[in-house]
Amino acid sequence: MIRPGEHRHVLFDVDGTIAETEGNAHLPAFNRALKEAGLSWHWTSADYKHLLKTTGGFERLLRFASENGHDVDALRDTLAAVHKNKNRHFADIMASGAVLPRAGFGDLVMSLARNNIGWSVVTTTSRGNWEALWNYSLAPLGLPSPEVIVCGEDVSAKKPDPEAYLIALKRLNMPAAECCAIEDSRNGLLAARAAGLEVAIVRSEFFADENFSEATRLVDELHELSLTDKANRFDE
Ligand code: XBP
Ligand code: MG
């Protein structure tokens, strides 16, 4: 079992882990931006589940274009603009208050703080998306700020590449053995494991049926990972 009480720091993935942002915000934001660009593409939830195998919103647009026989090079600039507009819509959706953190997230962070365990954010989403989530959904909970925040712009290779996790460990100046990660996707699990971290998976809307055999712990909800004040470790 993963025991962050035996770790000094917990590294949180964002999308799907801290909040169900994919179906509630990224997907509708993509569809709005695609429509505004005059493209006749509309992604269903099933389309998006397939496309989520690629991390990164821009990379996801390129994948869709390629899989559907479009001239990817000719569309590159258009899709870069669609991605930028998608992130504007994402921020608007977050500002509307439509996306709350997952149940138990605030209590988990507070339980870590009471046990002198720090937390950081390791995501390959755009920094603006993290900032929107933090400002509108998380900061109002009165949580301590994460120590380190690694986002998509900080890396040359997105998850499942371990780069984002390796950068976080370097900035924290901590070895992997003193930290653990919480993720919701196979790509995130592979990224964290390749950086040498133990991983707890929290099942999410789009990734619940993925192979998580390399995870140390698999839960349905974040409150299952909360620490008891006395035990100083994840409840079992
Ligand atoms: C997050 C993502 C992101 C978001 C979109 O990866 O894959 O692509 O869906 O973000 P992870 P951008 O949760 O594994 O860190 O559009 O900003 O790329
Ligand atoms: Mg995720």
Small molecules (ligands, ions, cofactors) in the structure:
xylulose-1,5-bisphosphate, magnesium ion
- Distance linking N and C termini: 8 Å
Return the structural class. alpha/beta
The percentage helix is 40-55%
Overall pLDDT score: 94
* Cα-atom radius of gyration: 18 Å
- Give the strand order, joined by hyphens, for the main sheet: 3-2-1-4-5-6
Put simply, the count of helices is 8
Low-confidence stretches: 231-236
Give a count of the beta strands, DSSP E runs of length 2 or more: 6
* CATH class descriptor of the largest domain: Alpha Beta
Which topology of the largest domain does CATH recognise? Answer: Rossmann fold
What coarse outline follows from CA principal-axis ratios? globular
Strand content: 5-15%
| CATH homology group of the largest domain | HAD superfamily/HAD-like
Report on the structure:
With 236 residues, the chain is of the alpha/beta class. It has 2 domains: 9-20 and 101-225, 3-Layer(aba) Sandwich (Rossmann fold); 22-95, DNA polymerase, domain 1. The chain has helices at 21-36, 45-51, 57-67, 72-95, 105-114, 127-138, 163-172, 186-194, and strands at residues 9-12, 118-122, 149-150, 179-183, 198-202, 217-219. Strands 3-2-1-4-5-6 form a 6-stranded parallel β-sheet, with helices on both faces. The model is unreliable at 231-236 (pLDDT under 50). Magnesium ion binds at residues 13, 15-17, 184-185, 188.
